[in-house]
From TrEMBL:
Record-given protein name: histidine kinase
Organism domain of life: Bacteria
Domain PAC residues, every copy: 84-136
Organism: Duganella lactea
Metal-binding listed as a keyword: no
Length: 381
């Protein structure tokens, strides 16, 4: 009697499965006992079919996983959800371990009765080792970049403070030798300004390091800007104009007014310098609703956004990537510390907000600050 076509196809399929060497493909009984064993399973697990058929598949698990009941959990999940997939350590016949990707599928008859499980295992140890090596390389690169940034920060701090201390030391020498009251007065004024600059530099460093305590409270950002508007105008020369566009009825924002004013002054001064003292600076205030991920590190929600726009030369992508680095500046020597934008960035981190930059060469730059908005309205001023 000739075998049927179905029987021939089934035999071919069985031979195909048994001949696969890159995958361990075998059958389990409903209780987890090994029923079949192919060439791939023998190759990287080390068991001959006569040694393993009839054994429970938990023999491939580590002692820790068996104690935790993982083999039984794997079958239960496969039966309940229709599939189980996992990665973990498995044990070869010689006791060595390999990292495996495992898939278990339940096999049921038309009546829904469980007949057993089909199990496919891949040895992906090499892939895991390569991923770990890549992660270590990334970590080493990150540490190297941190050390480089720390070196730049330390060098910048040392340079600035050395200049300030030189002013104070020279002033003390003059005081020691001078008899003219006018020279004494000028020396004291010079040393006082140097000390104030040192204190300001320390505050900027603390803001960048997010160690300066903030007094966060709900505030009407528009009211804060209007009360500080005169100072912002004075930061610009006569040839420049500051244009305010403040929306009405904005929700209160969570901010520290003093640090907020300092941040705005920094941004306006940066805009002034970007345009060489000529042109208009635009400052806008509005409420925005963000979707999750629309602005990096900000959850979805409502925010008060401040935009400071200039019409300067703009920034190249390389400059934008380094704009918030401490002591990075494109200004001439002596005209900037490179801490202004870093200070603003540190403030936004402390406020659980964000700072974004938008710039194109020849078209100017826009710096946007996002402050979390509160639902409750403020009482009348």
């Amino acid at each position: 009697m000739q075998p049927s076509v179905d029987a021939i196809e089934a035999e071919r399929f069985r031979q195909f499965i048994m001949g696969v060497t890159d995958y361990a493909i075998y059958m389990l009984s409903p209780q987890g006992v090994v029923i079949t064993w192919n060439a791939g399973a023998q190759r990287f697990k080390g068991y001959h079919p006569d040694e393993i058929i009839g054994q429970h598949f938990s023999i491939f698990y580590t002692d820790e996983d068996r104690a935790d009941g993982r083999p039984a959990k794997a079958l239960a999940v496969a039966r309940a959800s229709g599939k189980f997939e996992d990665e973990g350590w498995r044990v070869r016949k010689d006791g060595s371990r390999f990292w495996a990707n495992v898939v278990i599928d339940p096999i049921v008859n038309p009546e829904g009765e469980l007949l057993g499980f089909a199990k496919v295992t891949r040895d992906i140890t090499e892939r895991r080792v390569a991923a770990e090596q890549l992660e270590r390389a990334r970590e080493q690169l990150f540490q190297s970049q941190q050390l480089e940034a720390l070196g730049k920060l330390t060098g910048g701090i040392a340079h600035d403070f050395n200049n300030l201390l030189s002013v104070i030391m020279n002033g003390l020498e003059l005081l020691r030798m001078a008899r003219d009251p006018a020279i004494v007065s000028r020396s004291i004024d010079t040393m006082s300004r140097a000390a104030q600059r040192g204190a300001a530099l320390t505050q900027q460093l603390l803001a960048f390091a997010r160690q300066q305590p903030l007094l966060l409270a709900p505030h009407d950002a528009a009211q804060v800007i209007r009360s500080f508007e005169t100072v912002l105008h004075r930061a610009l020369p006569d040839a420049m104009r500051l244009h305010l566009r403040l929306d009405d009825g904005l929700p209160p924002a969570l901010l520290d007014p003093t640090q907020f004013e300092s941040a705005l002054l920094n941004l306006v001064v940066n805009a002034r310098d970007a345009m060489d003292g000529r042109g208009d600076v635009h400052l806008g205030l509005l409420a925005v609703t963000l979707a999750d991920g629309e602005v990096a590190r900000l959850p979805a929600g409502r925010y008060v956004r401040i935009d400071v726009c200039d019409g300067g030369m703009g920034m190249t992508p390389d400059t934008m990537a380094r704009a918030i680095e401490p002591f990075f500046t494109t200004k001439e020597v002596g005209k900037g510390t490179g801490l202004g934008l870093s200070q603003v960035y540190g403030l936004m981190q402390q406020c659980d907000g964000a700072l974004t930059l938008a710039s194109r060469v020849g078209e100017g730059t826009t710096v946007s600050l996002y402050f979390p908005a509160l639902a409750a309205s403020l009482p009348p001023a």
